[in-house]
């Protein structure tokens, strides 16, 4: 749900002594370095950004790309996005289905309008897409914005639709700083062939779920689903041991047993004699 609602529920429940796990908004960022296997990275990013029509908290709606490869990156992304098969959700060939409702369709389209107003470069526009035979369907096609800057709300706020924002940076340091400035920290990822930058990213990124050449770093269920910052409110995360602890109230028992000889040595408030064990 929204961060606003999550905060409200968390505050109200905590005031009544209740535990809460509130998973809220996200704006996951992926960092693409110049040494990445670019075509392979873009193929994965397409699935991360547009799978489930972008309606998942672990989608990848922002790519932070080193300037020297950014034009090539955009070329691949646009190519792969145009190849997405958009259709009804129950068709096995469909790669991008409709959004959840007419209201949400208009919400996503309004964000695309906002991106244009803010001055981002609209590389691919999904607002007017029509699927033959499903003309009244709630479809939004793959949408790509380039040259998105930090003063544009489209690159900061959750859209929850098939909209990808591309932010250009000079290098790794600028990229990770930009990413860590986000108020959300559900997931983050890096695409690189450098072990050094992979380790630095894993150590320094603020996100709770981190991918190295993985666009959607969702852990299997025996690890915690670890959103940070304004993407999660609670004292333990979902899944794994955290999930077990959340539903567990611990009890500590201290006990001692005495021999017959020890029982006879007891006087009120004192011990007499030596106990051999």
Explain how this protein is built.
The chain is an alpha/beta fold and 277 residues long. It contains eight helices and 13 strands. The protein has helices at 3-15, 38-50, 67-82, 102-118, 172-180, 195-204, 240-246, 260-264, and strands spanning 21-23, 29-32, 62-66, 121-124, 143-146, 163-169, 184-185, 187-191, 209-212, 228-229, 232-234, 266-267, 270-271. The strands form four sheets. The protein has a seven-stranded mixed sheet with strand order 4-5-6-3-2-8-9, with helices on both faces. Strands 1-11 form a two-stranded antiparallel ribbon. α2 packs across α3 (67-82). The longest helix is centred in the middle third of the chain and has 17 residues, at 102-118. The radius of gyration is 26 Å and the shape is elongated. The mean pLDDT is 93.
Number of helices: 8
Strand order of the largest sheet: 4-5-6-3-2-8-9
Taking pLDDT < 50 over at least 5 consecutive residues as the criterion, the unreliable ranges are none
Structural class: alpha/beta
Q: In angstroms, what is the radius of gyration?
A: 26 Å
Q: Please report the distance between the alpha carbons of the first and last residues.
A: 60 Å
**Approximate helicity band:** 25-40%
Count of strand segments: 13
State mean pLDDT (0 to 100 scale).
93
Major pleated sheet: 7 strands, mixed
General form: elongated
> Would you list the SSEs in sequence order as H and E?
HEEHEHHEEEHEEHEEEHHEE
**Strand percent estimate:** 15-25%
């Amino acid at each position: 749900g929204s961060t606003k609602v999550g905060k409200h529920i968390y505050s109200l429940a905590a005031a009544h002594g209740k535990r809460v796990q509130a998973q809220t908004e996200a704006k996951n960022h992926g960092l693409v370095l110049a040494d990445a296997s670019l075509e392979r990275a873009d193929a994965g990013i397409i699935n991360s950004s547009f799978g489930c029509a972008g309606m998942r908290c672990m989608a990848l709606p922002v790519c932070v790309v080193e300037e020297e490869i950014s034009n090539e990156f955009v070329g691949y992304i646009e190519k792969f996005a145009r190849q997405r098969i958009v259709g009804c959700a129950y068709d096995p060939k469909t790669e991008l289905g409709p959004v959840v409702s007419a209201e949400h369709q208009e919400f996503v389209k309004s964000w695309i309008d906002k991106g244009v107003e803010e001055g981002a470069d609209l590389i691919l526009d999904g607002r007017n897409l029509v699927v033959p035979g499903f003309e009244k369907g709630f479809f939004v096609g793959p949408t790509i914005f380039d040259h998105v800057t930090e003063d544009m709300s489209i690159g900061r706020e959750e859209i929850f639709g098939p909209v990808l924002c591309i932010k250009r940076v000079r290098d790794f340091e600028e990229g990770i700083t930009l990413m860590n400035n986000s108020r959300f920290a559900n997931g983050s990822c890096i695409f690189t062939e450098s072990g050094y930058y992979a380790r630095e990213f894993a150590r320094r990124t603020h996100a709770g779920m981190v991918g190295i050449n993985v666009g959607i770093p969702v852990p299997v269920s025996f690890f915690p689903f670890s959103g940070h910052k304004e993407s999660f409110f609670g004292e333990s995360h979902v899944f794994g041991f955290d999930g077990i602890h959340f539903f567990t109230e611990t009890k500590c028992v201290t006990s001692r047993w005495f021999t017959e000889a020890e029982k006879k040595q007891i006087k009120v408030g004192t011990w007499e004699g030596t106990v051999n064990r």
